[in-house]
Specification:
Blueprint (H helix, E strand, L loop, with lengths): L3 E3 L26 E9 L3 E9 L5 E9 L7 H16 L8 E7 L4 E7 L6 H7 L4 H20 L12 E3 L6
Antiparallel strand pairs: 1-7, 2-3, 3-4, 4-6, 5-6
């Protein structure tokens, strides 16, 4: 896999049992995910770094995206979020963030999706530090084009491709 990941999920992408979550972090499900910290927020959703834990104690760092509370009753937005999750669950490409889970917490009225966590910088932050050399810029562009081609062949249109939504698995890649 190439270490560049195109996040097909709008943001650059919680919760354990109520008594176990860090203060100020919203719960998502009971016992399945634990919030570590808030990662980012946009106009429609916010993303947290979380931890998934299996029954056997296996832990994996994940990104958890949830609908902003003020949009939880917006049927049009919820329909788009459901479509995004449904499509994302079926996309498997080395340059697209993997969606692992999607659920609704009935008690809290919160939709959320659990995604692959990418720990590197965004393309935007990399470009703010310095100009990308031509060879690196071309490799990033090719990886983005490959991801978009794959998504388009699976009837997915991103609608928000920008440097802030391009994640690199490592700061030194490409």
């Amino acid at each position: 896999l190439t270490p560049l990941r195109w996040q097909c999920l709008t943001l650059a992408g919680e919760g354990l049992a109520t008594n176990a979550r860090p203060r100020g972090h919203p719960p998502m499900t009971q016992d399945k995910y634990r919030v570590i910290r808030r990662l980012d927020a946009g106009g429609m959703a916010e993303v947290y770094v979380g931890e998934a834990e299996s029954l056997q104690g296996f832990k994996k760092k994940v990104a958890i995206k949830r609908v902003l509370p003020e949009l939880a009753q917006n049927r049009q937005f919820i329909a788009m979020f459901l479509d995004e999750a449904r499509i994302g669950l079926h996309l498997t490409h080395g340059n697209i963030v993997q969606v692992f889970d999607f659920d609704f917490n009935e008690e809290l009225g919160i939709y959320y999706m659990v995604m692959e966590y990418i720990g590197g910088p965004t393309l935007k932050s990399l470009m703010e530090d310095s100009a990308l050399p031509l060879e690196k810029a071309m490799r990033v562009g090719i990886a983005i084009a490959n991801a978009l081609d794959y998504a388009h062949r699976h009837e997915m249109v991103h609608r928000d491709v920008k440097p802030a939504n391009i994640l690199l698995a490592r700061p030194d890649w490409p």
